[in-house]
Amino acid sequence: MTVTACRMCGSVPAAAATFRGHQGFIIVMRFLSLEGPFCRDCGLATFRRMTSRTLVQGWYGWASFIITPITVLINLVRRGRVAHLGAPQPNPFGPSRPPMDPGPRLLQRPMTIIGLAVPFALVVLIALLASQSS
Fold first, then answer.
1. Is residue 5, in this structure, part of any structural domain at all?
2. Which of 9, 58, 113, 124 is most deeply packed, by most CB within 10 A?
3. Could you tell me the residue range of the domain that residue 32 belongs to?
């Protein structure tokens, strides 16, 4: 019998999902990804960590201002694949260990708030510069 187990902890049930990250640098950019399957807790922990880091590190390139929100939206859609799973249980057919701690929700993380402030501050700066030149 085949059971889909979490790639991080070995618990069941698990669902296939790929979470993405983006790091924008001034000239170049880097794309990150982590493929599942994930149990609910490991999937939420991965989603929250990668999305929060993307919101902080993703804005700093010429195309990154468009790629970062797309990456966040893709992660939000894929979050649903793991968020609706039941509580992780030890795998009866193989090794497992305790699942990852999902930690605080995405909008309760200081890194996320800082990451959301970056584009907001840039828009405010552009609006101020535009109003002064008029």
1. no
2. 58
3. 18-133
DSSP 58: S
13 occurs within a structural domain: no
DSSP symbol at 89: B
Assigned domain for 57 exists = yes
Tell me the whole-structure pTM to 2 decimals.
Answer: 0.90
Taking the CA atoms of 102, 85, 98 and 12 in sequence, report the sign of the dihedral they define: negative
Q: Is residue 3 situated within a structural domain?
A: no
Counted domains in the chain: 1
pLDDT tens per residue across span 120-132: 998 899 899 999 8
Two tokens at 62? 């010429």
* pLDDT of 8 above 70: yes
Per DSSP, 15 falls in state: B
